Amino acid sequence: MTRILLIDDSRYARSTLKQALGEGYQYLEAADALSGLELYFLEKPELVILDLTMPGMNGLEMLAQLKAIEPAARVIVCSADVQEFSQQEALRLGAARFLAKPIAPEHLRTAVSEVLEREA
């Protein structure tokens, strides 16, 4: 079963992502970037869905560290921080997609399917 790591400091946001994606995935969850990095390297999920705005290490910092160590990591950034700089920086650092919150469930499902299929 495909494992997806959800990294977001909001429990509600993680729950919303799981509901939007539905069954058929195994979900791993982290409430901050540092815990997310640790969980990624322990579990090696097929996909990470990452928020940018979190206390401590932010999502861009976490993405840079993850991709430096694991260039093949598949990451979708899903954030309410929709500044042009944030979007461009996330993509430059290696995110496969940048999705603005709130996101329509069908857009999330499409992005996840495309990233998993394209990079499989």
UniProtKB/TrEMBL annotation:
Query: Which GO biological process annotations does it have?
Result: phosphorelay signal transduction system
Q: Which residues are annotated with the PTM 4-aspartylphosphate?
A: D51
Q: Which UniProt keywords apply?
A: Phosphoprotein
Protein origin, superkingdom? Bacteria
Note the Pfam families from the entry.
Answer: Response_reg (PF00072)
Instruction: Give every Response regulatory domain span.
Output: 3-116
InterPro entries in the cross-refs: Bact_response_regulator, CheY-like_superfamily, Sig_transdc_resp-reg_receiver
Q: Is-annotated flag, keyword Oxidoreductase?
A: no
* This protein's name: Response regulator receiver protein
What organism is recorded for this protein?
Anaerolinea thermophila (strain DSM 14523 / JCM 11388 / NBRC 100420 / UNI-1)
